[in-house]
Amino acid sequence: MKKHVVGIDIGGTKLATVVSDSTGHILGKVRKPTLAEKGPEYALGLLFDMVRETVRLADLEQAAISAIGVSCGGPLDTKTGIVYSPPNLPGWDALPLKTKLESEFQVPVTIENDANASALAEYRFGGGRGYNAVLYMTMSTGIGGGIVLDGQIYHGANDSAGEVGHQILLPDGPLCGCGKRGCLEALCSGPAIARRAQAAIRKQLTNKKASTTMLTLTDGRIEDVKSEHVLEAARTGDALALELVSETAYYMGWGIANLVNVLNPDIVLLGTIAIAAGDLLLDPIRETVSKFAMTRPAAAVEIKPAQLGDALGDLAAVALVV
Amino acid sequence: MKKHVVGIDIGGTKLATVVSDSTGHILGKVRKPTLAEKGPEYALGLLFDMVRETVRLADLEQAAISAIGVSCGGPLDTKTGIVYSPPNLPGWDALPLKTKLESEFQVPVTIENDANASALAEYRFGGGRGYNAVLYMTMSTGIGGGIVLDGQIYHGANDSAGEVGHQILLPDGPLCGCGKRGCLEALCSGPAIARRAQAAIRKQLTNKKASTTMLTLTDGRIEDVKSEHVLEAARTGDALALELVSETAYYMGWGIANLVNVLNPDIVLLGTIAIAAGDLLLDPIRETVSKFAMTRPAAAVEIKPAQLGDALGDLAAVALVV
Question: Would B240 be classed as within a structural domain?
């Protein structure tokens, strides 16, 4: 009999529970809003119910579940399983998540921050299969990262390794969510790209230059321009949008080159925005990396979009325990 | 009976061979000039003789030697033991160093680039003892680096990991030996500090400001000012020298903060110039790191001078095989 596992994906806006077999094949799934404002006790109760419901959906008994994997926003301690006040989960202060789940379900629980869990999922099931040194970087609301070496998540001294989004490139640059300036995340996350786009459009309008497709896409509302409009407009050849893509690729390439010199990865997998953008963004990133990184590590590395797409959240939690 | 090993330290200007017992206690040592211009065959012949001489000096038979460790400038391939044209060893092009030594001495040979070997030596015998994630950074002619995780050198995809000196901070900054601009090495190596000092002194003289102790130390010769004069003058309170130390600490701290965010090391050990400078340089580096790195990894890391000093080269080679 194959073993089955439960995966729990805890986000600030939604909770998801899945049941999977040992190959990562998903047999059942339940999603509910986190209602983060109701605090951790509410979310925990909801999660307990969701886990049971998912097991039923998968036509299994609770006894068929051998382990639970949890992917959750950090910071958290993977050894003790305690979650320390993730920014998107108000009230989750020193919450002993692992202990609570273990005493409820009587199976071993592994908790991991979502970027690390995603990196492991890409290694197990996605673009990182077969590579010894995998660097995964999200490119969405923030820029997170996870490092998988010889099949194991690299945690560092206190589970804080892989904070690739907070590499500082421009110490006098734009303010980052972390309170510092000019982090890669403050330049290349989705909101950061949108901010740069809106500023560039305002500047162009002030100079009374021709308008941009980006504005057409938002019915003229500058404040509605998002990273997806930048990409869409760039695909139509819009000059300003292409400039923004090129600037984004420059900062990403610079940051990745520095990481390539230190980690010498076999592969760098880029998520979300990079998946949506494809080679429009990846090609100039690759060019910048080969210009800025040392010859040998640059020759060794492949830079590719992450592969798991929408399945990532589910598989991230599952990858921890299969 | 304890096992004994040979350590070989290959530099561009000198060769050293040592014999050590299994605890890293050095029993004999021979040093000779590399005479790099004579090419690899000359150096190899010399090394063969030096190894035999060192074993005799240690009052041992050749049969008492169980392994040979070699610390050498990279790039090199640790698996095949082939050295690929290190900049300081002209003619060492695809030289099968491991094979040559193994067929001469009939014992297993481990070769490693000098920065990685030094990192391992600090882990085994120096400031890195007892730490799981150790980052060692040289600060001398260049800025090299080595990463030791759970007691093993981290090599990456093709033995190029740990190139911390080529992290680019200022893409329009000073030219680096690697051909790129604004690498940490181009800002904070010994020659880079000297270059910045000389430029600052020239600028001060142009502005007809008061002179600096740095010039007193070199009998007025600007072109002779080196990093050691900057440190010596800073210790006497010389304003310009203090400014140069502060600038050096800013760049080092910025670069180390980025590394701390990614690697989350338990300890960062800084060599050579940092050892000579002590807290004069280390304190402002620590301040910059705690300002620029994320709170959790910054809280976990200690930043200290490397401990092995002059013994480093010998122990680097030995650490590979004991």
Answer: yes
Tell whether A85 and A159 lie within a shared domain.
no
B264 close contact with A: CB closer than 8 A: yes
B194 and B277, same domain (yes or no): yes
Between strands B109-113 and B145-149, the pairing is unpaired
Query: Comparing C-alpha atoms, which of A36, A74, A70 is closest to residue A51?
Result: A70
Eight-class DSSP state of B62: G
Judge whether A154 lies within some domain: yes
* B87 vs A102, residue with greater confidence: A102
Same domain, B101 and B153: no
Question: Do residues A30 and A53 make contact, with C-beta atoms less than 8 angstroms apart?
Answer: yes
- Is the CB of B297 less than 8 angstroms away from the CB of A265? no
Q: What is the CATH number of the domain that holds B169?
A: 3.30.420.40
Pairwise CA distance, residues B322 & B21, whole Å? 8
A81 contacts: CB under 8 Å, gap ≥ 6:
A96, A97, A98, A99, A109, A111
CB-nearest to B163 from A180, A297, A299 is A297
| Per-residue tokens: B170 | 């200022």
Q: What share of chain B is helix, strand, coil (3-state, %, to 5)?
A: 45, 20, 35
Quick one: A286 and A250 in the same domain? yes
Q: Are residues B301 and B315 in the same domain?
A: no
Angle at the Cα of B49 (from B46 to B54), degrees rounded to 5?
A: 120
Q: Which residues, including other chains, have CB under 8 Å from residue B273's CB and lie 6 or more apart?
A: B139, B140, B190, B193, B227, B231, B281
- Whole-number Cα distances in Å, A90 to A85, A174, A176, B261: 7, 26, 20, 24
Cα B85 to Cα B89: distance, rounded to the nearest angstrom? 7
Q: How many CB atoms lie within 10 A of CB B203?
A: 11
H/E stretch holding B234 reads helix B227-235
Among B residues 180-209, those touching chain A with beta carbons less than 8 Å apart: 180
Helix (H, G, I), strand (E, B) or coil at B213: helix
Please give the ipTM for the structure prediction.
0.95
Domain match, B184 and B150 both: yes
In chain A, which residue's Cα lies nearest the Cα of B169? A169
Rg (CA), chain B: 21
Q: A301: which residues sit within 8 A by CB, 6+ positions away?
A: A260, A264, A265, A266, A267, A268, A289, A293, B157
Residues of B with Cβ-Cβ distance to A266 under 8 angstroms = 157
Domain annotation covers residue B122 = no
B298 contacts B288 by C-beta, under 8 angstroms:
no
Q: Residues B23-65: pLDDT tens digits?
A: 999 999 999 999 999 999 999 999 999 999 999 999 999 999 9
What part of B 71-90 touches A (C-beta under 8 Å)?
75
Per-residue pLDDT tens for B195-240? 999 999 999 988 877 789 999 999 999 999 999 999 999 999 999 9
Domain annotation covers residue B119: no
Q: Examine the domain organization and report whether A30 and A164 are in the same domain.
A: no
| Cβ–Cβ below 8 Å for B258 and A167 | yes
Question: Looking at chain A, how many residues does it have?
Answer: 322
Q: How many domains does chain A have?
A: 2
Which residue blocks in A90-189 are alpha helix, DSSP H?
97-105, 114-125, 184-188
Domain boundaries, position A226: 133-306
Round to whole Å and give the CA distance between B113 and B158.
Answer: 12
**Residues B159, B186 within the same domain:** yes
Could you report how far apart the first and last alpha carbons of chain A are, in Å?
14
CA nearest neighbour of A67 among A109, A96, A117:
A109
CB of A57 within 8 Å of a chain B CB? The answer is: no
